[in-house]
Amino acid sequence: MQRKIITTSDGSKTIHIVDWDEQYHSKHGAIQEAYHVFIKSGLSLFKNTSVSILEIGFGTGLNALITLIEAEKYGLSIEYTGVEAYPVTSLELQELNYVSELDASSFEKHFLKMHECNWKKSSAITNYFSLHKQQKYFMQIEDQDAFNLIYFDAFGARVQPELWTESIFSKMYQALKLNGVLVTYAAKGSVRRAMLAVGFRVERLPGPPGKREMLRATKIE
Ligand SMILES: C[S@@+](CC[C@H](N)C(=O)[O-])C[C@H]1O[C@@H](n2cnc3c(N)ncnc32)[C@H](O)[C@@H]1O
């Protein structure tokens, strides 16, 4: 499928899937959305501790980069697993402007290292942050009681409805530790009901710019 780089409302770039008219991030601001959904509504629950994170859709690495920056800021130790079936190309990577938009030039080498590191094993990106990228389909995830936090960042249900079903959320539930949390930008009723059906407690939270609500699901037993 044809992918092209576009600029979102906060000045940060994202990838547009032409055939689906779908983006990797919100058109209202890629960086703003990533901070709101994944850091403010997810990672910030886990201050002063070690956190294992599973990302559903590693994509451009934006969520991983802002998580690494937060880890340095708060002295959090993070083990990050990013699952992705269709990695970005090095040409796409060159066009993304996250390091400059985040005013984070000291992290440029870490962002590059994230993209260059091995897909089959965990790599230390900093003293605080290790990354294990896995090139596979989400349906192949079989982890049990492994993660504190899931960043569920698949394309929307409009274009990939099969990724927002009970069978996927059941895998996510299994993969989380007790009291583990899944955050997503989505707020659809059918998504919330699929999460409830597999046992999650689900909260509706204020959404990022351009979205009224988002969902946070917790594994309570
Ligand atoms: C919304 S984008 C993720 C954006 C990413 N979190 C970021 O910060 O750039 C969704 C990602 O899921 C990947 N993807 C789509 N279907 C998939 C599948 N069935 N299994 C694994 N990855 C898939 C896409 O290639 C894309 O990178």
Task: Give the helices and strands as they follow along the chain.
Answer: EEEHEHEHHHEEEHEHEE
Distance between the termini: 41 Å
Residue share in helix: 25-40%
Tally the beta strands.
11
Largest sheet: 8 strands, mixed
Q: Ligands in the structure?
A: S-adenosylmethionine
Number of helices: 7
Which overall shape is indicated by the principal axes computed on the Cα atoms? globular
If you compute it from the alpha carbons, what radius of gyration comes out, rounded to the nearest whole angstrom?
A: 16 Å
How would you describe the overall organization of this protein?
With 221 residues, the chain is of the alpha/beta class. It contains seven helices and eleven strands. The chain has helices spanning 30-40, 62-74, 90-95, 98-101, 108-116, 166-175, 189-197; strands spanning 3-7, 13-17, 22-23, 50-56, 77-83, 123-124, 129-134, 147-152, 176-184, 200-206, 213-219. The strands form two sheets. It has an eight-stranded mixed sheet, sandwiched between helices. A three-stranded antiparallel sheet has the order 1-2-3, with no helix packed on it. Helix 1 packs across helix 2. It is globular, with a radius of gyration of 16 Å. It starts with a strand and ends with a strand. It binds S-adenosylmethionine (SAM). S-adenosylmethionine (SAM) binds next to helix 2.
